[in-house]
Amino acid sequence: MIIRRANVEDAPAIASLAGELGYPVEPDTMRARLGPVLRSEDDAVFVGVAGMAVIGWAHVAAVRLVESEPYAELRGLVVAAALRSRGAGTRLLHAAEEWTRSRGLARIRVRSNVTRERTHAFYERHGYTATKSQKVFDRQL
Questions:
Q1: Above 90 in pLDDT, residue 114?
Q2: What's the CA gap between 80 and 90, in Å, rounded?
């Protein structure tokens, strides 16, 4: 498996994997979302490729807030269900961490739904510590 930066041609595979994560999306919609993210200096999307197939992806972004020092946030990471626990997630995570370091950022944060206990264990094995719990509020406008 290799890790490389994503490109817009990866949109159908990224969309399919987003569905496995619980966020179903059509490939054309993903293509439209992916374009601006790929052009952003403050975002990076990495894909894991085995043979010719994208089997996982990770999205990391710089976060700049007035109330804290800048940091990176792992916005999403998923590996195809049939290929989990074989090291792809670790390699994608390391790519996101290296990108964070290369931007001069000293901290990376990941948010994970409280129901994803297996995911929590993955991050804890990689040195991440749960620092807070919160509620998320949305409003359709």
A1: no
A2: 13
Domain boundaries, the chain: 2-125
What the block records as the tokens of 100 is 């964070």
108, 72 Cβ separation under 8 angstroms: yes
Burial of 101 (0-12, 13-18, 19+ CB in 10 A): exposed
The whole-number average pLDDT for the span 42-64 is 97
Check whether domain 2-125 has CATH 3.40.50.1970, yes or no = no
Whole-prediction pTM value? 0.93
The tokens describing 51, both together, are 């043979």
Cα gap 16→125, rounded to integer Å: 27
Place of tokens 């409003």: 139
Measured in whole angstroms, the distance separating CA 9 from the mean position of its chain's CA atoms is: 18
Say what the pLDDT of residue 30 is. 98
The torsion defined by the Cα of 113, 115, 1 and 26, in degrees rounded to 10, comes to -70
DSSP string across 41-75: TTEEEEEEEETTEEEEEEEEEEEEETTEEEEEEEE
CB atoms within 10 A of CB 42: 13
